[in-house]
Amino acid sequence: MSARMRVNRSHTGNRRSHHALKEPRLSTCSKCSAQHLRHRMCPECGNYKGREVIDVVGKKAARMLKRTNKMKALGEEETVNEEEIHEEVKDENLKKEGKTKVKAVKKPKKSEAKKEK
Q1: Which of 71, 46, 67 has its CA nearest to residue 58?
Q2: Residue 40, pLDDT score
Q3: Cα four-point dihedral sign 28, 34, 36, 39
Q4: HEC string of 25-48?
Q5: Contacts of 72 (CB under 8 A, 6+ apart)
Q6: Closest CA to 55 of 38, 67, 39, 43
Q7: What is the DSSP secondary structure assignment for residue 53, as one 8-state letter?
Q8: Which residues of the chain register pLDDT less than 50?
Q9: For residue range 73-100, what is the model confidence (pLDDT) as tens digits?
Q10: SS3 of residue 2 by DSSP
Q11: What are the φ/ψ torsions at residue 114 (nearest 5 degrees)?
């Protein structure tokens, strides 16, 4: 390497000054007060600019239901009722909104309703 090609420490430092990582620009959700990236929906509640874009709660319930059905198919001992899943999701939503738990009315299962007819 010739002296002409050599770059001193200050020039190297100037070049590397832009390599630093920057903190993500975060905003707080107006509904649930969770932090999310700007110009993107809140991953906790699915809201963007004050309106619900995606039903995150419904997707979470569907995912839990699918998981329990898969466990049942594999023969796992851990079984969870659909009602319990929906109650858990409702409880999480109430906690986020700061409301108290409302007593839920249990609906009969589809299989029980067919037997009664």
Answers
A1: 46
A2: 93
A3: negative
A4: CEEECCCCCCEEECCCCCCCCCEE
A5: 79
A6: 43
A7: -
A8: none
A9: 888 655 556 667 667 767 776 666 665 5
A10: coil
A11: -70, -35
